[in-house]
Design a protein that fits this description.
There is one protein chain. This protein is α+β, with helices and mostly antiparallel strands and about 425 residues long. The chain folds into two domains: about 290 residues, Zn peptidases (Aminopeptidase, 3-Layer(aba) Sandwich); about 120 residues, Alpha-Beta Plaits. The chain has twelve helices and 17 strands. Strands 1, 2, 3, 4, 5, 6, 15, 16 and 17 form a nine-stranded mixed sheet that branches. Strands 7, 9, 10, 12, 13 and 14 form a six-stranded antiparallel sheet that branches. Strand 3, helix 3 and strand 4 form a beta-alpha-beta unit. Helix 8 runs antiparallel to helix 9 and helix 10 crosses helix 12. The structure holds zinc ion. The site of zinc ion has 5 residues, from loops. Zinc ion (ZN) binds next to loops.
Length: about 425
């Protein structure tokens, strides 16, 4: 069987199994550290056992499936992604990278190929920060980078702490933590992921060779406080209207973003949440409270800080203009990550050999790969074409595209794993 046909059949079977165990009537739901995420990990283990791969879990229940190499003392080649989903997400975000890695190891076993170096697929935990307000939990626990405060973060639906969830799933959250990944033991990390935007389909490319991962700066729980007042009885000059202040804030920052774009400064700026207080707001009152979130992303840390400074200034101006108080709340976020030039070159070479259309692109979304890159481990991401975006039930990955991308990953990992 050809490489591509093997990966296509493997993917089809495993994605069907994942769909069957996590479909909630609308999409896939596998919350971080839930029974469903455990079950997905168990499905992977069953296949790993069948093919004789080594199975290991660390203190935070990240899963490692390894094909031992001829020289086990050499730094290992790593690939993988996450198995949790957002509520009613699609079948491919995260899972595609783990399924691809496992398919590659199984094909190597079937072919009797033993690499020079250990080759490991990691299935990380809790990558989707919609459950816990902490970025890249799985990969950061793998390197033991979380703080005690992070471990006390509560899951939005259960209100129980990350530490409690880790322990409940069979991990051991108490310090000192066990089975920590060390950068010096890792040769490289290459993560395959579905593309989450429209760039690949609109360019007729199957694969995106990622040049860098954007960092983020977020205000998740910001508020504007003004004064509730009768809509008919309160003249304009006596108002502290939070909706008008919100509109001013949005348009002022939108104009700023347009100016940055014209100056060639690549970033995104998004108000993802914006609402009046459902309990108090009504059609005949000036709204006294608006809640909103603000998310800014860029590949450039200095630019993120520059934007933040500008936001602080705009917030002061808007508050003054509309006689309201604006509280941005706590700033959270993640650092940008650079991808390895050699791995990018290899990905293009393998794509060319296999006659698969590839293009270079940045990643606007955060991924576990950023944690590896920020530990100075040579890191790369391969995006695969996917219709309809991600984090929704309509993600659409053609199995032929999955097989093509997995074959490119297969080629890149093999080149690295064979290095003496
Ligand atoms: Zn993902």
């Amino acid at each position: 069987m050809s490489i591509i046909l093997f990966h296509q059949a493997f993917g089809q079977t495993l994605f069907q199994a994942l769909h069957a165990m996590s479909f909630d009537g609308l999409g896939m739901t596998r919350p971080s550290y839930s029974e469903k995420e455990n079950e997905a990990h168990e499905i992977l283990c069953a296949i790993a056992r069948e093919y004789g791969l080594e199975i290991r879990r660390d203190w935070a229940c990240n899963l490692y499936l390894t094909l031992p190499g001829r020289d086990r003392s050499k730094p290992a080649v790593m690939t993988g992604s996450h198995m949790d989903t957002v509520p009613s997400g699609g079948n491919y975000d995260g899972a595609a990278g783990v399924v691809a890695g496992l398919s590659i190891l199984c094909r190597w076993v079937k072919d009797g190929f033993v690499p020079e170096r250990d080759t490991t697929v990691i299935a990380t935990r809790a990558e989707e920060s919609v459950w816990f307000p902490v970025s890249y939990i799985g990969s950061r626990t793998a390197f033991d980078l979380l703080t005690e405060k992070d471990l006390q973060a509560r899951r939005v639906d259960t209100a129980r702490t990350l530490a409690e969830h880790i322990d409940e799933c069979g991990g051991k959250s108490q310090w000192p933590h066990e089975d920590i990944l060390k950068a010096e033991n890792i040769d490289c990390f290459v993560e395959l992921h579905i593309e989450q935007g429209p760039v690949l389909p609109s360019n007729n490319a199957v694969i995106g060779v990622v040049s860098g991962i954007c960092g983020s700066m977020r205000y998740r729980h910001a508020t504007i406080l003004g004064q509730y007042a009768h809509s008919g009885a309160t003249p304009r000059k006596f108002r502290a209207d939070t909706v008008v202040a919100m509109a001013d804030l949005v348009t002022t920052l939108q104009v700023y973003w347009e100016r940055m774009e014209e100056a060639g400064k690549a970033m995104t700026l998004t108000f993802g949440v914006c609402h009046t207080d459902a309990q108090q707001a009504n059609f005949s009152a000036v709204a006294g409270k608006v809640s909103f979130s603000l998310d800014v992303r860029s590949q450039d840390t200095d630019l993120l800080n520059e934007v933040d400074q500008h936001i602080q200034q705009v917030v002061q101006d808007v508050a003054k203009r509309h006689n309201v108080k604006i509280d941005l709340g706590e700033r959270t976020g993640s650092s940008p990550a650079h991808m390895d030039a050699d791995l990018q070159r290899m990905a293009f070479e393998v794509s060319n050999e296999l006659n698969i259309a590839a293009m270079s692109m940045a990643s606007g979304a955060g991924h576990d790969a950023a944690t590896f890159a920020n530990r100075n481990i040579p890191t790369e991401m391969l995006f695969v074409r996917n219709e309809n975006g991600s984090h929704n039930p309509y993600e659409h990955l053609e199995m032929a595209d999955f097989a093509a991308a997995t074959s490119v990953l297969d080629g890149v990992l093999k080149l690295r794993a064979e290095r003496i």
